[in-house]
């Protein structure tokens, strides 16, 4: 074997020193979830700085020819007991005093202590070089290799830069109302104690309005505790924006809330504002918990959200294939829950996990940026069982604590970074809506499965909308693609109305012992609300050429293999403040939707003529513009949407009213041409269109080379004024509209490639009987999708299993009535 010094000299030109901007993957393997803590450690390529576990480093060497790798191995140290430990043998933990992570006074994110071993390994013979060995080598070798080793170890790993190591929830902004706050000279003076709500006599959670000195109770919390919303109602009646929480005032400050800005704020003139009502900050003492302390208490109590997390019983931990936990990367429980469920669907297993060797063999030079590779890596990590092992707990040497099901699990850092890249929400560490992430991920799968099996087809179905003009009795049928059934919650159908009213009455009277009563809504009532006809009062009928009343009925034109039902728990109050409906719904284990299958045009039924609204006539000239409902356009503009988008929403929904137009806007907001001017059908040279003859052949060729047909490329470029980047975005956001052109190899349509056969009438969907069985559901805890926690329950081998981030346990009482997303699979007949 050659001398190691000579070998190092021969590969010296391939050893790089990391520069600013280089991505150093020293915490996670690019192709698996191996890390420096794994057996054998992690091998970091000293040229590309990609990390590889022991099972993949030889493969990378064979493919790239790279020979020099930095092997990083970490072994967890045994925890030392604190000198000031408690009698239990555990050191006392400091109570958090600040709503923050990773800074003084915040939540203590315990950092494991490791012994780290670093050395250079030369493949294929695995010759090892330590720092001590370098001391005896020529200067040129020693300097280059030492600098590279030091640079790799000193560089922030990609995963580190993606994580928020420090987060401070107490950083508050100065209120825009503070400097010029109007205060009434009404003679009100506030005593230093003994405060009560002026409306309901509540003595806790009391706030004083800084404009008129009104003393009122705060908001009601999601569990029924807190106040009765009287301070909020006072703002809605008066517009007086700032309030201070009485009992939190000290010489250092107080809790100030801006109802107008909907956030905790700073008031630099607080001493002056308080003295107006006779309050001397310097003499006040804190008697109430601040909002920060309340939020800290809630965050510490996350594991006590009894019902959904089943924390009232001792749950049996489960380990093995398909029972792998996922680490929470900071509000990533929404992602964890969705991906756990998706990889129980056979389509996703066969697409990504069954073919993982082929996918890895075909991976590009930087697999960390390849969608298919990272999804396959995640799927294999969840299903293989390799990472489904109990997490070591050095602090529990006697094994006295109850088994919690914590696992080593997997940390989906590369996956989260990749699927969230460029997205304004999913690229952050804020909590997100699991339903929105599911649709976002399905959209990414659609983009990346233009050829070969598309697992998202398992959820895809067609919806048929039937609109009947009540004046002419003529009908209009439209079909659209969907992936999720959104089930309304008819609160007026609650079966325990008397209990709800009684609890509400007691809370209004200030009875702090009033129980929290959850509305009981029958599932059949939700289905009835979904299927009943909707009355359209402002429908433009092409049959009578005027506005009239119509009814709209929605039915399934096809039934998917797997059906996702979203319970529409999140809504807006009259004040447009998001709120969550606290409901219990008796969701069934089996479901038969056969009665909701669309039947198409009825015998003898006449269809509405395909005629656009008439053009607007002026005395001197005919303008090619549709007749639009100005009031609807104005309402949409007042909500902050672009004028042209509002005009298109009203036009494409046939002047059927604000609700239909709003739905159009919400489903088209991500379109690249969302704000482009409205162009009427048949108008070939209006704003936003480009005649075919002027399209760039280079742009057409670029889009065709991506696997689209020339017709599709033409349509995309014409819709985006011949701008290539916008056209590519447009074509990917209109996949469902283009499915009827069915792309095949070489950029030709299926009709061209198979002898001129007519293209299929619509998007590819699977169909079958509408009978289903429940196999998974995702639950949410908290007051809105922007906060709280998600867990999922999945039925595996007739046993319900709860996946709560890294905890995986046998479920004793699956709370099927409290779910948010329900997943059904077709029952084989």
From TrEMBL:
Domain UBP-type, chain residue ranges per copy: 173-281
Organism field: Menidia menidia (Atlantic silverside)
Region (Disordered): 78-98, 386-407, 494-515, 743-766
Entries under Gene3D superfamilies matching the protein: Cysteine proteinases (3.90.70.10), DNA helicase RuvA subunit, C-terminal domain (1.10.8.10), Zinc/RING finger domain, C3HC4 (zinc finger) (3.30.40.10)
Biased composition (Low complexity): 744-753
Catalyzed reactions per annotation: Thiol-dependent hydrolysis of ester, thioester, amide, peptide and isopeptide bonds formed by the C-terminal Gly of ubiquitin (a 76-residue protein attached to proteins as an intracellular targeting signal)
Domain UBA positions: 627-668, 694-734
Annotated GO MF terms: cysteine-type deubiquitinase activity; zinc ion binding
Binding locations of Zn(2+): 197, 200, 217, 230
Enzyme class, UniProt record, top EC level: hydrolase
Family: Belongs to the peptidase C19 family.
Documented EC number(s): 3.4.19.12
Protein name according to UniProt: Ubiquitin carboxyl-terminal hydrolase
Keyword annotations of the record: Hydrolase, Metal-binding, Protease, Repeat, Thiol protease, Ubl conjugation pathway, Zinc, Zinc-finger
GO biological process terms, semicolon-separated: protein deubiquitination; proteolysis
One Pfam assignment: UBA
SMART domains recorded: UBA, ZnF_UBP
Domain USP: 324-827
PROSITE patterns the UniProt entry points to: UBA, USP_1, USP_2, USP_3, ZF_UBP
Family matches, as CDD domains: Peptidase_C19B (cd02658), UBA1_UBP5_like (cd14294), UBA2_UBP5 (cd14386)
Residue ranges with Basic and acidic residues bias: 498-510
Binding site for substrate: 207, 219-222, 257, 259, 262
Positions of the catalytic residues: 333, 789
């Amino acid at each position: 074997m050659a001398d190691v010094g000579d070998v190092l000299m021969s590969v010296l030109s391939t050893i790089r020193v990391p520069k600013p901007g280089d991505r150093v993957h020293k915490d996670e393997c690019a192709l698996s979830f191996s890390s420096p803590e794994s057996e054998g450690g992690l091998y970091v390529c000293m040229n590309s700085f990609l990390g590889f576990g022991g099972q993949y480093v030889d493969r990378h060497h064979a493919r790239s020819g790279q020979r020099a790798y930095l092997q990083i191995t970490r072994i967890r140290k045994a925890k030392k007991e604190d000198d000031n430990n408690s009698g239990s043998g555990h050191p006392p933990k400091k109570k958090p005093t600040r709503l923050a992570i990773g800074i003084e006074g915040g939540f203590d994110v315990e950092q494991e202590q490791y012994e780290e071993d670093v050395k250079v390994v030369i493949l294929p013979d695995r010759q090892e070089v330590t720092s001590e060995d370098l001391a005896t080598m020529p200067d040129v070798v020693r300097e280059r290799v030492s600098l590279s080793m030091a640079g790799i170890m000193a560089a922030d790993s990609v995963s580190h830069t993606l994580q928020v190591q420090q987060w401070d929830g107490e950083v508050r902004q100065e209120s825009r109302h503070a400097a010029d706050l109007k205060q009434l000279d009404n003679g009100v003076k506030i005593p230093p104690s003994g405060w009560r709500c002026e409306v309901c006599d509540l003595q806790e959670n009391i706030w004083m309005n800084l404009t008129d000195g009104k003393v009122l109770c705060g908001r009601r919390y999601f569990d029924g505790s807190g106040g009765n919303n009287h301070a909020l109602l006072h703002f809605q009646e008066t517009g007086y924006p700032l309030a201070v929480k009485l009992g939190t005032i000290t010489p250092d400050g107080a809790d100030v809330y801006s109802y107008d800005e909907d956030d905790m704020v700073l008031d630099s003139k607080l001493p002056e504002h308080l003295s107006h009502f006779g309050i001397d900050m310097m003499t006040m003492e804190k008697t109430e918990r601040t909002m920060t302390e309340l939020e800290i208490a809630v965050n510490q109590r996350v594991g006590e959200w009894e019902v959904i997390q089943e924390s009232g019983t001792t749950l049996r931990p489960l380990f093995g294939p398909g029972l792998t936990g996922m680490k929470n990367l900071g509000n990533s429980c929404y992602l964890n829950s969705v991906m756990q469920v998706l990889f129980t669907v056979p389509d996703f297993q066969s697409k990504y996990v069954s073919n993982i060797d082929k996918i890895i063999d075909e991976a590009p030079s930087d697999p960390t940026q390849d969608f298919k590779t990272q999804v396959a890596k995640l799927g294999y990590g969840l299903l293989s069982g390799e990472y489904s092992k109990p997490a070591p707990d050095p602090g529990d040497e006697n094994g006295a604590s109850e088994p919690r099901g914590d696992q080593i699990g997997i940390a989906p850092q590369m996956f989260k970074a990749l699927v969230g890249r460029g997205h304004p929400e999913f690229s952050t560490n804020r909590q997100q809506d699991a339903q929105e992430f599911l649709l976002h991920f399905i959209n990414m799968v659609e983009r990346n499965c233009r050829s070969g099996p598309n697992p998202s087809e398992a959820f895809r179905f067609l919806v048929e909308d039937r609109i009947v003009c009540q004046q002419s009795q003529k009908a209009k049928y439209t079909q659209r693609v969907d992936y999720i059934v959104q089930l309304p919650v008819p609160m007026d159908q609650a079966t325990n109305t008397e209990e709800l009213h009684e609890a509400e009455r007691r809370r209004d009277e200030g009875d702090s012992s009033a129980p929290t009563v959850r509305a009981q809504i029958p599932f059949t009532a939700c289905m009835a609300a979904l299927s009943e006809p909707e009355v359209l009062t402002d429908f433009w009928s092409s049959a009578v050429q005027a506005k009239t009343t119509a009814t709209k009925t929605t039915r399934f034109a096809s039934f998917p293999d797997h059906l996702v039902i979203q319970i529409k728990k999140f809504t807006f109050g009259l004040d447009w403040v998001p709120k969550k409906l606290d409901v219990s719904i008796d969701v069934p284990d089996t479901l038969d939707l056969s009665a909701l299958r669309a039947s198409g045009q009825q015998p003898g039924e006449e269809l509405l003529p395909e005629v656009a609204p008439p053009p607007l006539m002026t005395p001197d000239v005919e303008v090619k513009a549709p007749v639009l409902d100005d009031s609807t356009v104005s309402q949409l503009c007042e909500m902050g949407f672009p004028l042209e988008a509002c005009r298109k929403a009203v036009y494409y929904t046939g002047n059927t009213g604000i609700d239909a137009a709003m739905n159009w806007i919400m489903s088209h907001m991500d379109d690249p041409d969302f704000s482009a001017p409205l162009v009427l059908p048949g108008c070939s040279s209006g704003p936003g269109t480009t005649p075919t003859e002027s399209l760039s052949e280079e742009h057409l060729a670029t889009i065709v080379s991506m696997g689209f047909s020339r017709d599709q490329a033409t349509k995309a470029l014409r819709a985006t004024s011949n701008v290539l980047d916008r056209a590519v975005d447009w074509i990917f956001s209109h996949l469902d509209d283009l499915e009827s052109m069915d792309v095949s190899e070489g950029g030709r349509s299926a009709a061209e490639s198979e002898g001129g056969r007519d293209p299929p009438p619509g998007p590819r969907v699977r169909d079958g009987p509408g009978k289903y069985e429940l196999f998974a559901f995702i639950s949410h805890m908290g007051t809105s999708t922007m906060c709280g926690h998600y867990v999922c329950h999945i039925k595996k081998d007739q046993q319900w299993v709860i996946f709560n981030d890294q905890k995986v346990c046998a479920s004793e009482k699956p709370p099927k009535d409290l779910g948010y997303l329900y997943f059904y699979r077709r029952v084989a007949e």
